[in-house]
TrEMBL record:
InterPro entries: SpdB. It comes from Streptomyces maoxianensis. This is Mobile element transfer protein. It comes from the Bacteria.
Amino acid sequence: MPRNRFWDVDRVGPVQIGTHRDRHGREAHAAACTAPGCDWSADYLNRAAAELAARTHRCNPR
């Protein structure tokens, strides 16, 4: 089983954005919040969408 490898990793506030290959071999972009108690993450097909989500994300830790 191949490892998940991220490249072109950036940080926007508490959110990290990274590029990876999805299970179909296509390039995808993931955004994940690293704040304690916030479990938000999402995959996007283009980098601009991931960056927009990272800039507009508001943490709501439980």
